Each structure stands twice: as structure tokens, then as C-alpha cells.
């Protein structure tokens, strides 16, 4: 009853014209439903994707005060317009 491996490839619209899309994976046992194949494809795509880069958050008030406290005195005077 098994029809052999079920090849799974990206959609045809992602492949350049005239070229066949490369296989992502092949099911060698069982008869997966389209929903199961979609779920497996989503998991494989998520694992292979690079992690999202988070933007650095603005320093909190406490961090700004601490940085100002640790800053050398001559830098504070320059910042206020004195030298």
C-alpha cells in the first residue's frame, strides 16, 4: 500500500524559472496527511532560520544615573559646557 517516498519541495513560485526546487525532506515511511507535512515543514524551517536580532533597549533611569556616577569628573564638566 506504500507508494514510496513522498518528496517535499518548496513551492514552485520560489524556484527560479526553468529550474526545479530542491527537496527539503522526503517521507520514507507512513502516509502523512497534508497537515502533518505542513507542520513538519514549519518545524524544519524554524530550526534552520537565524535567530531574530533584538534591538538594544534604551537605558533605564537607574542605568543612566549609574553611568553618570561612574563617569570621570572631567567628562561631566565638559558635558555641562565647562572646561
Automatic annotation (TrEMBL):
This is Acyl-CoA carboxylase subunit epsilon. Pfam families: ACC_epsilon. One of its GO terms (molecular function) is acetyl-CoA carboxylase activity. Residues 49-59 have a biased composition (Low complexity). It comes from Sinomonas puerhi. Residues 71-83 have a biased composition (Basic residues). Signal peptide: none annotated. Residues 1-21, 49-83 are annotated as: Disordered.
Amino acid at each position: 500500500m506504500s507508494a514510496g517516498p513522498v518528496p517535499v519541495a518548496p513551492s514552485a513560485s520560489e524556484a527560479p524559472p526553468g529550474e526545479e526546487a530542491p527537496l527539503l525532506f522526503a517521507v520514507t515511511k507512513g502516509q502523512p496527511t497534508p497537515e502533518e507535512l505542513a507542520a513538519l515543514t514549519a518545524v524544519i524551517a524554524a530550526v534552520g532560520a537565524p535567530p531574530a536580532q533584538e534591538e538594544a533597549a534604551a537605558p533605564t533611569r537607574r542605568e543612566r544615573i549609574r553611568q553618570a556616577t561612574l563617569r570621570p569628573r572631567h567628562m561631566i564638566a565638559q558635558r555641562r559646557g565647562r572646561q
